[in-house]
């Protein structure tokens, strides 16, 4: 896996190659430069060329996943000066119990957490949610961060909607696939509009991340976990729905999280309870599971959530979220360069494994979602940094991606204010999606 600085160098090298290509004549053929055609052979033989400096990469050049090159460089410079304590916190998205806004705020301050995941067990009503997200944001600011925290929530639509009764109800993501299947252009339009409305409403409540869209291609009744959360049993239909949703979330200025790589739709057991075994060959995955993720990357997905699956053809007996081979599939084969985040580390699929967070971080995860014990996980990473069990370069790489993404989110949010009628727009978008699907 390439670190951030080599990737930036690769961009510069690519620009240099482009600038150094021979120019084209009117007929499209190569045209020799004037200097080479007029220089004498003896001069060419006796003089050695001056080394040319690599052209500076424009800091406003966007990456393939959102932030600019400049934001990525700024993030890398920032995290390089951090203590082990601060660096370890920046790769954890914590969990908490209860409704008190001060509890997650204190975790963010004390452990320097990247942020917090909010669940239905943490919310009561709109005012309490606003108080909670505001407290977390203030805590990150008081911790000296010039970027917003990760405040995420599962708000997929349908039954996986942790803000039910507080935010607008949207139908299952299956509705997006049905809408696309019925009329591809209309389906993409209403799916994108629904994602825009969801994202804006979440931002209005103080969130910066949404753990959606689901890119899993379900196999139907044998799939006990995903089901109607999946856009379709057809990879092509699912790919269109996922791409449209990501564009919509981007339009809303919120970080989307395509999940659960490389595809949970073929698993016949629930990873909330146990580690599902998936015996699909890599070729079968390429045909059935990977197309929606390829579409997501094509549409500049900023973050991908890794599944807890035992993929016997890639990394047997190891959860995908902790398998370097699966991160290599995502990054090296599919070309994803953004933030990788594990599925919840409190799930049954990874329960009882020794230091699951550290295993995931070493394998390639950039964010560790909802470990069972935030403080203990933070200390494990600090100890591993100090002992050299995990390299500082790996943790800096992860933290810098997260920081850059949060800088990007803040910039987009500033450019795209939440409209005063956001709730009315969300209700209309939900109705339009349902109408197009059925």
TrEMBL record:
Its EC number is 3.2.1.52. GO terms for molecular function: hydrolase activity, acting on glycosyl bonds. Residues 1-25 form the signal peptide. Belongs to the glycosyl hydrolase 3 family. It catalyses: Hydrolysis of terminal non-reducing N-acetyl-D-hexosamine residues in N-acetyl-beta-D-hexosaminides. Residues 27-68 are annotated as: Disordered. It is an enzyme of class 3 (hydrolase). The keyword rRNA-binding does not apply. Keywords: Glycosidase, Hydrolase, Signal. This is beta-N-acetylhexosaminidase. It comes from Nocardioides zeicaulis. Residues 32-56 have a biased composition (Low complexity). Residues 103-404 form the Glycoside hydrolase family 3 N-terminal domain.
């Amino acid at each position: 896996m390439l670190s951030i600085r080599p990737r930036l160098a690769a961009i510069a090298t690519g620009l240099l190659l482009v600038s150094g290509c021979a120019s084209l004549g009117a007929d499209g053929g190569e045209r020799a430069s004037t200097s080479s055609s007029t220089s004498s052979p003896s001069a060419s033989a006796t003089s050695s060329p001056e080394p040319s400096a690599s052209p500076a990469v424009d800091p406003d050049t966007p990456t393939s996943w959102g932030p600019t090159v400049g934001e990525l460089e700024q993030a890398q410079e920032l995290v390089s000066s951090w203590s082990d304590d601060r660096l370890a916190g920046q790769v954890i998205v914590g969990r908490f119990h209860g409704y008190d806004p001060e509890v997650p705020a204190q975790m963010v301050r004390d452990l320097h957490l990247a942020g917090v995941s909010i669940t239905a067990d943490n919310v009561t009503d709109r005012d309490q949610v606003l108080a909670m997200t505001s407290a977390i944001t203030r805590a990150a600011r008081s911790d000296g961060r010039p970027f917003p925290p990760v405040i995420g929530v599962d708000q997929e639509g349908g039954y996986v909607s942790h803000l039910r009764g507080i935010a607008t109800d949207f139908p299952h993501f299956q509705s997006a696939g049905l809408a696309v299947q019925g009329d591809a252009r209309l389906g993409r339009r209403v799916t994108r509009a629904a994602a825009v409305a969801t994202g804006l409403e979440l931002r209005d409540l103080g969130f910066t991340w949404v753990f959606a869209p689901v890119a899993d291609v379900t196999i139907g009744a044998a799939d006990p976990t995903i089901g109607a959360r999946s856009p379709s049993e057809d990879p092509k239909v699912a790919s269109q729905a996922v791409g449209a949703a990501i564009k919509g979330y981007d339009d809303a200025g919120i970080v989307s999280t395509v999940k659960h790589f490389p595809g949970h739709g073929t698993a016949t057991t629930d990873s909330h309870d146990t580690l599902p075994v998936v015996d699909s060959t890599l070729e079968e995955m390429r045909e059935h599971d990977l197309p929606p993720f390829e579409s997501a990357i094509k549409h500049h997905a900023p973050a991908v959530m890794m599944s807890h699956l035992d993929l016997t053809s890639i990394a047997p007996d190891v959860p995908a979220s902790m398998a370097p081979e699966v991160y290599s599939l995502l990054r090296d084969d599919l070309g994803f360069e953004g933030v990788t985040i594990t599925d919840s580390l409190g799930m049954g699929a990874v329960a009882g494994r020794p230091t699951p967070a550290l295993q995931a971080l070493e394998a390639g995860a950039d964010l560790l979602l909802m470990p069972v014990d935030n403080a203990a996980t933070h200390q494990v990473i600090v100890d591993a940094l100090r002992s050299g069990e995990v390299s500082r370069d790996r943790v800096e790489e992860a933290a810098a991606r997260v920081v850059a993404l949060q800088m990007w989110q803040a910039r987009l949010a500033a450019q795209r204010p939440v409209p005063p009628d956001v709730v009315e727009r969300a209700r209309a978008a939900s109705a339009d999606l349902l109408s197009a699907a059925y």
